[in-house]
């Protein structure tokens, strides 16, 4: 078995792809999906449940016109990959690392960040932003800034 490709794979749909992807998403979401597909010579292939789940998520996102990144879990990211994943500049990410806000290791002089840590940080930031937005809305309502 060949070694898995350690890179982040990004898939972006074209406008021409979206109709076919929407149809595939609809079929994958249909009740009674058998988890099978036709092979090259008409043979039926059984697709495992985790693959069917992944295909459902992928096709929904691609059909909506969103790009999708596929990253193997358990992988270490470069600072640029981590920065791209959380949507910040590389220098800002390095500052987060140096301030201890994200754990990292060094390989020679290169910093490496675990994917799980980057995803956890990203989710923590989303929760914090949501909480701050909810608090701002509450303060605005209490101050009578919203009118019906």
> Kindly, what is the distance between the CA atoms of the first and last residues, rounded to a whole number of angstroms?
63 Å
Question: So what's the overall shape?
Answer: flat
Radius of gyration: 21 Å
Strand order in the sheet with the most strands: 5-7-6
**Helix and strand composition category:** alpha+beta
Low-confidence stretches: none
Could you characterize the architecture of this molecule?
The protein has 148 residues and is of the alpha+beta class. It is built from 5 helices and 7 strands, in the order E-H-E-E-H-E-E-H-H-E-E-H. The strands form 3 sheets. The chain has a 3-stranded antiparallel sheet. Strands 1-4 form a two-stranded antiparallel sheet. It is flat. The model has no long low-confidence stretch (mean pLDDT 85).
List the helices and strands and how they pair.
Blueprint: E1 9-11, H1 15-29, E2 36-38, E3 44-46, H2 49-63, E4 68-70, E5 76-77, H3 79-86, H4 90-98, E6 105-107, E7 110-114, H5 115-142
Antiparallel strand pairs: 1-4, 2-3, 5-7, 6-7
Helix pairs in contact: 1-2, 3-4
């Amino acid at each position: 078995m060949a070694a898995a490709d350690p890179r982040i794979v990004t898939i972006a749909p074209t406008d021409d792809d979206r109709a076919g992807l929407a149809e595939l998403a609809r079929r994958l979401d249909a009740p009674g999906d058998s988890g099978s597909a036709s092979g090259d010579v008409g043979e039926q292939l059984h697709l495992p449940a985790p693959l069917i789940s992944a295909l459902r998520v992928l096709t929904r996102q691609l059909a909506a016109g969103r790009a999708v990144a596929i990253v193997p879990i358990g992988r270490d990211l470069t600072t640029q990959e981590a920065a791209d994943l959380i949507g910040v500049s590389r220098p800002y990410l390095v500052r987060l690392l140096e301030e201890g806000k994200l754990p990292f290791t060094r390989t020679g002089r290169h910093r490496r960040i675990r994917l799980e840590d980057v995803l956890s940080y990203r989710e923590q930031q989303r929760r914090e932003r949501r909480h701050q937005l909810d608090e701002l809305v509450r303060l605005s309502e209490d101050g009578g800034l919203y009118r019906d």
